[in-house]
Design brief:
Blueprint (H helix, E strand, L loop, with lengths): L8 H13 L3 H35 L3 E8 L3 E2 L6 H13 L5 E6 L13 H15 L5 E4 L1 H8 L7 H4 L2 H7 L3 E5 L6 E7 L2 H8 L1 E2 L4 E4 L6 H12 L2
Parallel strand pairs: 1-3, 1-4
Antiparallel strand pairs: 2-7, 4-8, 5-6, 6-8
């Protein structure tokens, strides 16, 4: 029988507290880690699992109605939030309840110049391509080079098929055409956004922003609503 087997849990805890009381802070930390590291690691792991599962369950309660990526953007002010414009403002415009999600990711940056490519930009491009392939992405707002890159591969919706003739007529001077490499067809693939008003409304600076809707978007009605919201159609 070990010395601890005939002791109650209360007496064991009292003994442990007395040991720690007589130690320096450094010795306390060493003692706790040396003798209790496995329970500590187990508890931390269990906590992370609970948080992860809880977060997944919580997020799955909400249906995503629009996923928009704003490429190569720079936040220019702390007074204006992109979330206020794309989530709160657009949510109110569409009369969406709080039970749906509107995603507006403005953290991604891309370049298509070989000399400027890095592991980071390759990873960002791979991430964005995966989102497009899995039909997670609905709208891209980005520079001309980004719209050209994906538009040449037939990645964007013909806006004459998305907007009504009356709506298209109102924005026709802003329409951006891309030539699809496979067919040689020129497609009205994007709408030029007024950079000044866009920056004022969102706090984001993008060099010559263009809005395009993915051809495989599963939320084209909401994407069309975003165009109407942004351009006052």
């Amino acid at each position: 029988m070990t010395p601890y087997e005939d002791k109650t849990m209360k007496s064991v805890l009292r003994t442990e507290r007395q040991k720690l009381k007589d130690m320096s802070l450094k010795d306390k930390l060493w003692y706790i880690w040396e003798y209790y590291k496995f329970p500590i690691i187990g508890s931390i792991t269990a906590l992370f699992l609970v948080i992860s599962i809880g977060s997944t369950v919580y997020n799955n309660r909400f249906e995503t109605v629009l996923n928009c990526v704003l490429l190569n953007s720079q936040l220019t002010t702390a007074d204006t939030s992109p979330d206020d414009y794309f989530d709160k403002g657009f949510r109110q415009y569409m009369n969406f309840s709080d039970d749906v999600k509107i995603e507006a990711n403005h953290s991604m940056s891309l370049t298509f110049e070989e000399s400027a490519m890095s592991d980071f930009t390759y990873a960002e491009l791979a991430k964005l391509s995966a989102m497009i392939t899995s039909k997670e992405l609905d709208v891209i707002i980005g520079r001309k080079d980004s719209i050209d890159h994906f538009g040449q591969m037939g990645g964007f919706t013909d806006l004459t098929q998305l907007l009504t003739p009356e709506e298209y007529e109102k924005v026709k001077d802003r329409i951006y055409f891309v030539t699809v490499s496979e067919t040689g067809e020129k497609v009205p693939a994007g709408i030029r956004v007024d950079g000044d008003s866009f920056q004022e409304n969102t706090g984001l600076l993008i060099d010559g922003p263009i809005l395009s809707v993915m051809t495989n978007s599963t939320h084209k009605d909401t994407a069309a609503g975003l165009i109407r919201y942004m351009f006052g159609l």
